[in-house]
Please model this.
Amino acid sequence: MSGVNIRNKKASFEYEFIDKLTAGIMLTGAEIKSVRASKASINEAYCFLKKSELWIRGMHISPYEPASYNNLPPTRERKLLLNRSEIDKLEKEMKNKGLTIIPLSVFISETGYAKVEIALARGKKMHDKRHDLKEKDDKRAMDRAMKH
Model:
């Protein structure tokens, strides 16, 4: 992986991950330059299926300044690239109630392509979130005790 790693930090707190996949993302030349400069955000983004294709909505890629007139809207829908078998599997899983597909991170692969790590996820209930926070605090306390 290159130095670019744009993460959705709230995802693990808000969702319970069932399955993770890595997908390519279709970008224009100006957009890939902005991603390489880490000028993108996936905090509000989510994925959806439309006509047996996977799309990402809400991903913000800042306009690349030197591209002036060639820039597209920063939050446009972008197509994600997966194998047919992976898309079919996601379509089958999405029929279950309460599941969603969320992006976890955007990175540049060794071959120079922009990739998105996505997860099939189920939203956590409030008591699950409290339990995770308690575990995190307990772990921090244990690490502090081990240090001293």
In short: The helical segments are 11-14, 29-36, 84-94, 126-147. The beta strands are 5-7, 15-25, 40-41, 46-50, 53-57, 60-61, 78-81, 99-108, 114-123. The longest helix spans residues 126-147.
